[in-house]
Write a structure and sequence with these properties.
Layout: H1 12-25, H2 28-38, H3 40-45, E1 53-59, H4 65-77, E2 82-88, H5 92-104, E3 111-116, H6 120-129, E4 136-142, H7 151-160, E5 162-173, H8 178-190, H9 201-211, E6 215-220, E7 223-225, H10 235-245, H11 250-253, H12 256-266, E8 272-275, E9 278-282, E10 285-291
Parallel strand pairs: 1-2, 1-4, 2-3, 4-5
Antiparallel strand pairs: 5-10, 6-10, 7-9, 8-9
Bound molecules: S-adenosyl-L-homocysteine.
Length: 294
């Protein structure tokens, strides 16, 4: 049964505000930056097969900060190579932020940006309609597969677009994170089954294993300070709660039972640790890299 609660993603303004606050309260981007710095260069070393031009697709790029860091590593591993970078992002605000970032950052002349203000499935539809034969060397979908109707179909499509030696990078919350526990407990009540899925890299691994697809995986340690959620009426706390539950105005619209259950679970040792008066939620991420065999 579909949940009667409204999904946070239905309100792009509130979604973006709560996402921004989440970034400030968590080590989300720091742990991704560590990964990009320490692991990604080796992952990217083998793509492209010696070509002088690489095709990259970023799906759900947001404001582009993480994308540009990855592109910088790509450039370091493949100097002298030009890059065609397709950005797939439905939020006009985020697309605008990304363009501003690009305009402010020098040294990106080797990249041609193509802006696709659309969802992953609209991009897929267009790609098929135009009978595109172009292949991609590096595709990434970072923290976005929650928002597609059928994550497995989305992975299948983008995998089919990979060139020889190409790589598809997926980052989602880890099955072992507080998110995983929260969603396993309240999936049927919180998750809008149409556009917001409670999926973790644990679910993606099961799906890939069942299809016999091989991949590499990594766990990234990350934390989120959710202390403000426990101060009744705190505006930041409410934004973070919306983000955690993916429910629009969670504390006003959820039943008292659901709210009490979620609040209790959020500070339970399965999800968080408490120290120095702070409640620190386990925000560990999982990374999956799928190779296109050569
Ligand atoms: N990758 C960025 C942003 C993650 S937030 C980062 O890690 O910082 C998720 C992003 O996915 C948002 O920018 C949102 O607008 C976008 N998004 C939402 N639904 C989408 C869909 N159906 N297809 C592609 N992107 C989507």
């Amino acid at each position: 049964m579909a949940s009667p609660l409204k999904s946070l993603v239905d309100d792009d303004n509130r979604y973006q505000t709560s996402f921004q606050l989440f970034l400030e309260r968590s080590s989300e981007h720091q742990c991704m930056q560590d990964f990009i710095h320490n692991k990604l260069p080796d992952i990217l070393a083998s793509i492209g097969d010696g070509k002088s031009h690489l095709n990259v697709i970023g799906v759900g790029s947001g404001a582009g900060g993480i994308d540009l860091e990855m592109l910088t590593k790509l450039h370091m591993k493949h100097p002298g190579v030009t890059v065609d970078n397709e950005v797939v992002e439905p939020s006009s605000q985020q697309l605008h932020n990304y363009k501003v970032l690009v305009s402010q950052k020098p040294g990106l002349d080797y990249i041609k940006f193509t802006w696709n203000k659309m969802t992953a499935s609209e991009f897929e539809e267009q790609w098929k309609l135009k009978k595109m034969t172009k292949k991609a060397d590096f595709i990434h979908m970072i923290q976005m597969l929650y928002y597609v109707k059928d994550p497995e179909a989305t992975i299948n499509f983008f995998q089919s677009v990979l060139d020889k030696n190409g790589k598809l990078l997926i980052i989602l919350v880890s099955g072992e994170s507080g998110w995983g526990k929260l969603w396993r407990t309240y999936r049927s009540q919180l998750c809008n089954t149409e556009i917001s899925q409670c999926i973790t890299t644990g679910d993606i691994k099961s799906f890939l294993d069942s299809k016999g697809v091989s991949y590499q995986s990594y766990e990234l340690l990350s934390q989120m300070d959710i202390t403000e959620c426990f101060t009744e009426g705190d505006e930041n706390g409410e934004l973070l709660l919306d983000f955690l539950t993916e429910v629009l105005h969670f504390s006003k619209s959820a039943s008292p039972e659901l709210k009490a259950g979620v609040m209790e679970l959020l500070r339970h040792p399965d999800c968080s640790v408490e120290s120095d008066g702070k409640v620190i939620f386990n925000n560990n991420l999982g990374v999956i890299v799928i190779d296109q065999p050569s």
